[in-house]
Amino acid sequence: MAYGRFGGRVKRIGDDFGQFRLRNLQVKKEDWEEARTKWQSAPRPPRIQAAGPGQESVWDYPRPPRIDRDTRLVEVKLGGQLVASTRRALRMLETASPPTFYLPKADVCIDLLRPSATTSVCEWKGLAHYYSIQAGTRVATDATWTYPKPFAPFGDLLDYFAFYPERVDECTVAGERVSPQPGGFYAGWVTSEIVGPFKGEPGTLGW
User: What does the pLDDT average to over 77-100?
Assistant: First the structure.
């Protein structure tokens, strides 16, 4: 979830789930504390899919979110190149959203990343810096981001990168190809192990 500083208050960026760009961003502690309080009380939809054997419901995920460690093989590819490959991923689990996978910097091909001017703020995790990915002739703009100084208690995200699955050629978890979270704004990874409905579709802004 992204917020920017405008006119001394917190304003949500991208209510239409479109692109957003923030520069020279500063966020006061009282602003993100207010944002936390607001989004902790989000309503539940009238119909929630039942999780089957081996599945998770995103409506059982917490808010504030939780970090789980994942030892399955997680990979990201672009332009025929392996951008990242790890068995040390972190899954960020938050109510209503598919998990966001964070991969350690040591398992990412940093030489393929190009710094971007884009930044965003999460009321839970802090200020994110974005990177584009260049693999051969392919360029994926603002396809990955990291938190240089994550808020507590999300310090484990330091030196980890998350990826938009729709902006690269392929993301996989244990060999299963990931589908992107609906709407194009959030960056959750949809796999067969989770059920929704998922935040990101029209009419889900308050979830």
Answer: 97
Q: Which residues pair with 86 in a beta bridge?
A: 74
CATH of the domain at 26: 2.170.150.40
Q: Is residue 82 part of a domain?
A: yes
Mean pLDDT of 172-191: 95
Range of the domain at 114: 3-46+60-195
Regarding predicted confidence, which is higher, 134 or 20? Answer: 134
The verdict on residue 205 lying in a domain is no
Q: What is the DSSP string of 48-66?
A: -PPP-TT-EEGGGS-SS-E
The size of the chain, in residues, is 207
- Give Cβ neighbours of residue 37 (< 8 Å, ≥ 6 apart): none
Q: Please tell me the total count of domains within the chain.
A: 1
What burial class does residue 196 get, using C-beta atoms within 10 Å of its C-beta: 0-12 exposed, 13-18 middle, 19+ buried?
A: buried
